[in-house]
Amino acid sequence: MRIDSYKVLFWDFDGVIKDSIDVKTEAFVELFEQYGSEIMTRIKAHHLAHGGMSRFEKIPLYARWTGHELSDNQVQEYAERFSKIVFQGVVDSFWVPGVERYLRKNDHKQIFVLVSATPHDELNAILKELSLRDCFKLSYGSPTVKNDAIANSITSLSVRASDCLMIGDAQADLKAAYDNRIDFLLRRHSSNESVFNDYNGPSITDFRTL
Q1: CATH architecture for segment(s) 3-19+95-204
Q2: What is the pLDDT of residues 24-56, one digit of tens each?
């Protein structure tokens, strides 16, 4: 697959631009570590299998596993604690090899759109910290879901689905691409091996050869 042949590239963030999956995995563990190793193991497995799922869905789910039903205010409190834990960790995490150059140089004059499950304000703060804002024509974070982000972008940019490629590392990314009938490129890494064990489509481990 030649990704330079597409007019629009939709990018996930964690695991595609930054190798920050472990940062968020450990943050969820920290939030619920008082409930023991069995819960920790379950949370890790679920988080890695559902990479595109918002923390606002995961936090109340994980709390229910511990026997607690959280109010909306409590979910927000947990989410704020989560943000404080992960922000600097995401910023400081390693770039996926080759991706920074591809984004900043944009040699093929493509339109880059960021679609992430990270809350929109936090995502923008991360982009600002990394001086990446100008790389993306559009950026979407939670609560906008990826399916809608892609559909809205195709309409607002007046492009065809065949002009677009989604680059992601989670089942939610694959589903969002499928639902919008655009091509998908999987970024493979150690944390999603089991999730995509049966996947036979186009994939990449880094962007160094592009």
Answers
A1: 3-Layer(aba) Sandwich (3.40)
A2: 999 999 999 999 999 999 999 999 888 888 999
